[in-house]
Design goal:
Helices cover 33% and strands 22% of the residues. Among the domains are: 12-203, Histidine kinase-like ATPase, C-terminal domain (Heat Shock Protein 90, 2-Layer Sandwich); 207-330, Ribosomal Protein S5, domain 2 (2-Layer Sandwich), CATH 3.30.230; 469-545, Ribosomal Protein S8, Chain: A, domain 1, CATH 3.30.1370. It is an alpha+beta fold. Bound molecules: adenosine-5'-diphosphate and magnesium ion.
Length: 599
């Protein structure tokens, strides 16, 4: 054994570089930290200037409190902060920053210049370049602070290599800029690229800020807003109508105490809450803002504060799911009034719109249902033109049937699922059923409608399980197999019986006949989507329903058409499992308008 000592304490410069790497790993982390500081300083206007993707320079200008000369002299030292005094304060954090390491990390990674003024008359400047501090003395400056970060990682060449192209760095800075701007709608944000104004987000309401920041999400700038409160926290969820459908969960944004965070449990809660409207691999866009008593949340577990430890996460999860389900359930409630379905005038002016997806079933004895302009939100731009010309030479089989018998009014005995009446006019293009109901013409997509019907049927009935003659082996890695094994009871719930042979190989022993044609889909989903049972379930049901439904192009006989139309009108949410509408509703008023008729 040698007495030689191999452990030594790192020198300050090396240690600060290591610490810097934790906080600052690319240009967007600098933008994030400087925005946080400006927000903490109480700024009402913040401008970000990026040159060369932020690699050349990131400059953030705020009109916040500014710093005294004494504070300026130490703000860039490690662990210097005005936001925390004792360790106890860690459990009561109201500010974005608190560790006092951002400016120190930036000073260790780049050339830093700060000019600050508390009065708007006299200000002070400082420059830190490679550990050398240069006092710029008194200068004339506007109230607030200008922080300029030049040549990021010029002193950390290893890290500089990991910077991407200026375009990619700009894009990542832009993402951070939008993320922050969303959480602070009362602050005006400006983004300048190469000196030119690129994004201007004026101070606004939260709804308007979301619409300004994500125009693609809110073409009509109208949102659902759901609020829920519980001891220690409050939740606000904003989302566009269910017509905005995403292929992944990327547009579900979660904020805890105004910080964007990645918390899958909460993303999942949003998906569950809206699952009835986003089946089969489709996802909503949504913004979830949670305000939690600072003592119930710990942001001090991730260098960039991207992850948090939240007490009572399961309770928040439940609250979110239930609040969303209840909100959507209430909107669907047709009984008595249509109030819940259509925006009241004041809702429109504040930008909240209740969805207009459902057609309330006709209730005998109640005032007749007045069609309101629902086409706009359901089927896109108002200027939809449709052509409908049943030329006798293009009669489909069912259309000739119709002409022979003349359209007749079909009156139904009130049944538990549907009460009301409509007139079936026939099929066009071998794909759509035409029907008159109240003051509207409906053009119903027969395939999508049947698909939806079967999908609902699968969801609501107990699956019949059939033993497979030849069991299907589930080929996957052992980690995946372990996950699948944990979910055997859930798979059994939808009729997929999975067993394990003596060698440890998992196989499907039995499943519902509706999945027989989907053998590859079943195996594929099991292996690739394990862990997301709800998604597997909806995806399988959606695919099975699609296989079972009439295809576009199939002739459909009269009784079946009537039956299908009845079912469609009884559906509270007439959309197919993939989110497409089941019909186009052309109101009489709209038709008159299209043909420029006044009477
Ligand atoms: P933290 O934000 O965690 O306190 P920073 O290193 O980001 O640590 O900042 C150190 C201190 O410098 C802050 O606590 C604050 O007092 C001061 N400071 C930084 N940026 C600004 C700014 N834009 N306006 C006013 N004060 C600032
Ligand atoms: Mg800070």
């Amino acid at each position: 054994m040698s007495e030689e000592r191999r452990i030594h304490v790192l020198d300050k410069v090396t240690a600060s570089k290591i610490a810097a790497g934790e906080v600052i790993d690319r240009t967007s982390s600098v933008v994030r930290e400087l925005l946080d500081n400006a927000i903490d300083a109480g700024a009402t206007e913040i401008s970000v200037y990026l040159t060369g993707g932020g690699i050349k320079e990131i400059r953030v200008i705020d009109n916040g409190s500014g710093m005294s000369k004494a504070d300026l002299d130490i703000c860039f030292l490690p662990h210097s902060t005005s936001k925390l005094n004792t360790a106890d304060d860690l459990f009561n954090i109201m500010t974005m920053g608190f560790r006092g390491e951002a400016l120190a990390s930036i000073a260790a990674s780049a050339k830093l210049e700060i000019i600050t003024s508390q009065t708007g008359e006299i200000g002070y400047g400082i420059e830190i370049d490679g550990g050398q501090v240069k006092d710029l003395g008194a200068v004339k400056a506007n109230k607030g602070t200008v922080v300029s970060v030049k040549e990021l990682f010029c002193y950390l060449p290893a890290r500089r290599k990991f910077l991407k192209s200026p375009a990619a760095e700009t894009s990542s800075c832009r993402t951070v800029f939008y993320e922050k701007a969303l959480a602070f709608p009362n602050i005006t944000f400006k983004l300048f690229l190469e000196g030119k104004l690129s994004t201007f987000l004026p101070a606004a309401s939260l709804k308007k800020r979301i619409a300004d920041a994500y125009p693609s999400l809110a073409p009509e700038k109208l949102y659902h807003q759901v609020e829920a409160k519980c001891e220690g926290y409050s939740v606000t969820i904003l989302f566009p109508g269910v017509g905005v459908v995403r292929r992944d969960r990327r547009d579900i944004k979660i904020y805890v105490n105004s910080r964007p965070i990645q918390e899958f449990a909460l993303v999942q809660a949003v998906c569950y809450g809206l699952s009835a409207y986003f089946p089969g691999g489709t996802y909503p866009a949504a913004f979830l803002f949670i305000q939690i008593d600072p003592s119930l949340v710990d942001f001090n577990i991730h260098p960039a504060k991207r992850e948090v430890k939240i007490n009572n996460l399961p309770m928040i999860h439940r609250t979110v799911v239930e609040a969303l389900k209840q909100h959507m359930g209430e909107l669907q409630k047709p009984a008595g009034s249509t109030d819940a379905l259509y925006p009241k005038d004041e809702d429109i002016s504040t930008g909240i719109q209740k969805p207009a997806e459902a057609v309330p079933p006709y209730q005998p004895g109640t005032p007749s249902y007045q069609p309101k302009p629902v086409e706009k939100t359901l089927f896109g731009p108002e200027k939809t033109s449709i052509t409908f010309s049943p030329a006798p030479t293009h009669q489909s089989r069912s259309f000739s049937n119709l002409l022979k018998d003349k359209p007749e009014v079909v009156n139904f005995q009130p049944s538990p699922e549907y009460k009301g009446d409509f007139r079936y006019l026939g099929q066009i293009f071998d794909s759509f059923l035409l029907c008159e109901r109240e003051d509207s013409l409906y053009i119903i997509d027969q395939h999508a409608s049947q698909e939806r019907f079967y999908f609902d049927l699968f969801l609501s009935s107990k699956p019949e399980v059939h033993q497979l003659l030849i069991p299907y082996n589930i080929e996957c890695e052992s980690q995946v197999a372990e996950l699948i094994e944990k979910q055997l009871p859930q798979y059994a719930e939808i009729g997929i019986i999975i067993k394990k042979d003596e060698t440890g190989q998992l196989y499907i022993d039995a499943m519902p006949s509706s999945f027989f044609e989907l053998k590859n889909d079943v195996l594929n989903l099991l292996v690739t989507q394990t862990g997301d049972f709800e998604n597997i379930k909806t995806e399988l049901y959606a695919r099975a329903a699609c296989k079972k439904a009439f295809k576009a192009g199939d002739a459909i006989d009269y009784d079946k058409a009537i039956d299908l139309i009845k079912k469609v009108f009884a559906m509270p949410m007439p959309r197919c499992p993939h989110g497409r509408p089941l019909y186009y509703q052309l109101t009489k008023d709209k038709l008159y308008q299209l043909l420029e008729r006044t009477v």
